[in-house]
Design goal:
Keywords: Oxidoreductase
Enzyme class: oxidoreductase
Number of strands: 14
Strand content: 25-35%
Number of helices: 11
Oligomer: single chain
Organism: Lithohypha guttulata
Distance between the termini: 47 Å
Largest sheet: 8 strands, mixed
Bound molecules: NADPH dihydro-nicotinamide-adenine-dinucleotide phosphate, the ligand O=C1OC[C@@H](O)[C@H](O)[C@H]1O
InterPro entries: Gfo/Idh/MocA-like_OxRdtase_N, Gfo/Idh/MocA_domain, GFO_IDH_MocA-like_dom, NAD(P)-bd_dom_sf
Helix content: 25-40%
EC number: 1.1.1.179
């Protein structure tokens, strides 16, 4: 059967939208996908139409045959375009709530970058709105769709390392914020919901949730208790530059009720052997089971190597590596998932469902509350529409 074509509309022209666009326009057959084809039919920039035109030249033209792509100088025009099936939102986290509301209001399905919103209350309103309007809506946590993540979840579900007792996950980047990010950069600018927790800590939490929450049957999944939080403010802006979280996941096992411990850490300044686009030598995620341990090597948002060690000394250590077919960066897998869900008429993705996105946002809310981490009122607000600053 011929693959079905999904028509994407890109909201924003920054770094991640460029990466996502290039990835989905790689021939899906190179990764064994023959039911879907992606095309980009519109790109919108809040700064200028010119920026959207440049984007199309660099990222779209020559990669999708005769399919035309329209440039817009506003997000409003994008969500009104009837040639767009799904909108991909790649603005800073501060803007996601407003941008998602705009797309939903115009009946557009959405794939929205992480962190989904600034707080859980905003996320809940978006899910309710998507449900009411019968629209597909998914948080773009690309890591979930990596073959490695899928395999690790399956290993846990199959009991390969026995019951999971504890998970440690770290997402640190070894960057001196004063050197790496100027004051307006989205990583440290509180007006853009900057800081380590929402930008990077979410990956440390992704590994907690996909191992200790998602591996359970739906009716047994329980959000963790946040037992402790430590936050270090970035000296110039007060955004968090390091956040450490201690979590307790309630787990019910055949032997009765017990808990599993989660230790999730994130920091700009702390160096971890976690080189971007290279595979690190020491594991950044350690999943400790009764019978063995699964170790995932960084960068944990783009994992390509894991190892299993066993309690039984007779068992060999097993080491596995994954490649990036068609030279994709790894975002095409989540693009395939979103497109497929939309085509099948689903409202949410099984691997990153609304309840789980919400539980993660609630966990981050509680971490922030305990750590005294706040954001400006306009980006925490659930009011809509509010005119937030455009780029520059
Ligand atoms: N999954 C992943 O691996 C990654 C995800 N991300 C996520 O993607 C989002 C964007 O990050 P990234 O692409 O790196 O950011 P960039 O700064 O590179 O791009 C953000 C874009 O958003 C638009 N925008 C609208 N309003 C503003 C504003 N007030 N300030 C700045 N930009 C604005 C701009 O596009 P325009 O002017 O065209 O409207 C801008 O180019 C974040 O939520 C981040 O967490 C980021 C990196 C990796
Ligand atoms: O999501 C992300 O993953 C990669 C990081 O480099 C980036 O800062 C972050 O937004």
């Amino acid at each position: 059967m011929a693959p079905k074509t999904v028509r994407w509309g890109m909201m924003a022209t920054g770094g991640i939208v460029q990466t996502f666009t290039k990835d989905i326009l790689v021939d899906p057959e190179t990764r064994g996908v023959d039911d879907i084809k992606h095309v980009v039919t519109a790109v919108a920039s809040s700064s200028s139409k010119d920026s959207a035109e440049k984007f199309i030249k660099n990222c779209v033209e020559g990669k999708q045959g005769d399919t035309q792509c329209t440039a817009y100088g506003s997000y409003m025009e994008l969500v009104q375009d009837s040639n767009v099936d799904i909108v991909y939102i790649g603005t800073p986290h501060s803007h996601h709530y407003q941008n998602c509301r705009l797309a939903l209001e115009h009946d557009k399905p959405i794939l929205c970058e992480k962190a989904l919103t600034v707080n859980a209350e905003q996320a809940k309103i978006l899910f309710d709105e998507a449900k009411k309007r019968n629209l597909f809506f998914m948080e773009a946590v690309w890591t979930r769709y990596f073959p490695l993540s899928i395999e690790v979840r399956r290993l846990i579900q199959d009991g390969k390392i026995g019951e999971v007792i504890r998970v440690q996950s770290d997402m640190s980047i070894g960057a001196i914020p004063e050197e790496a990010f100027d004051l307006s950069h989205r990583m440290v600018n509180k007006d853009l919901a900057g800081g380590a927790l929402l930008d990077l800590g979410i990956y440390a939490l992704t590994w907690q949730f996909q191992t200790l929450y998602h591996t359970l049957p739906k009716e047994k999944r329980k959000a963790p208790r946040v037992v402790g939080t430590v936050v270090t403010p970035e000296p110039r802006t007060g955004a968090d530059e390091a956040t450490s979280m201690l979590l307790e996941f309630p787990v019910s096992t055949p032997s009765g009720k017990r808990n599993a411990h989660g230790i999730a850490t994130t920091a700009f300044r702390a160096h971890f052997d976690n080189e971007v686009d290279q595979v690190s030598a020491t594991p950044a995620v350690r999943i400790f089971g009764e019978e063995g341990e699964i170790q995932v090597f960084g960068p944990i948002y783009r994992p390509s190597r894991y190892r299993i060690t066993f309690r039984d000394p007779e068992e060999r250590i097993q080491d596995f590596s994954f490649d990036f077919p068609g030279d994709i960066h790894g975002m095409a897998w989540e693009g395939d998932e979103a497109a497929r869900c939309w085509m099948e008429g689903k409202l949410e993705s099984e691997s990153m469902g609304w309840e789980e996105s919400l539980a993660i946002m609630q966990t981050m809310d509680e971490v922030r509350k305990q750590g005294g981490l706040t954001y400006p009122g306009n980006i925490e607000s659930t009011e809509y529409p509010i005119d937030l600053a455009a780029r520059g």
